[in-house]
Amino acid sequence: MSKRKSIGAGWALVAALALVAAAPATGAPAKDGDVRVAGTCTKSTTSKLKLSRDDGRLEVEFEVDQNRVGVRWAVVLRQNGTVVRRTTGVTRGRSGSFEVRRLVADRPGTDTITAVATRPGERCSARASI
Fold it and tell me: What average pLDDT does the segment 10-36 reach?
């Protein structure tokens, strides 16, 4: 392959990655219309958010996985900017994770759920729309 072709292929890859990065954070549809998104964390912790329709309501599931047991996190769930749950999660079990679940009203139109978990020196967040 010539240098010209390999440079062109490299730019095509960069352009494709830029399009993926610019995609809205609505999440990927999952089974039965569920929406799942990976969250972002400031350290090596991971998080994910899942939204599901359930009997006229929305089920919100936010999971934080730190791989360390006994760590306390402050968690806030928001629906369209309004706080719908403020709680504490503590990592447990072999996985060192916790999950916060909440059923909220399924408002007309698109609902945007934002989940944020914080502890000293670290923050995880995820956002999805359904």
Answer: 53
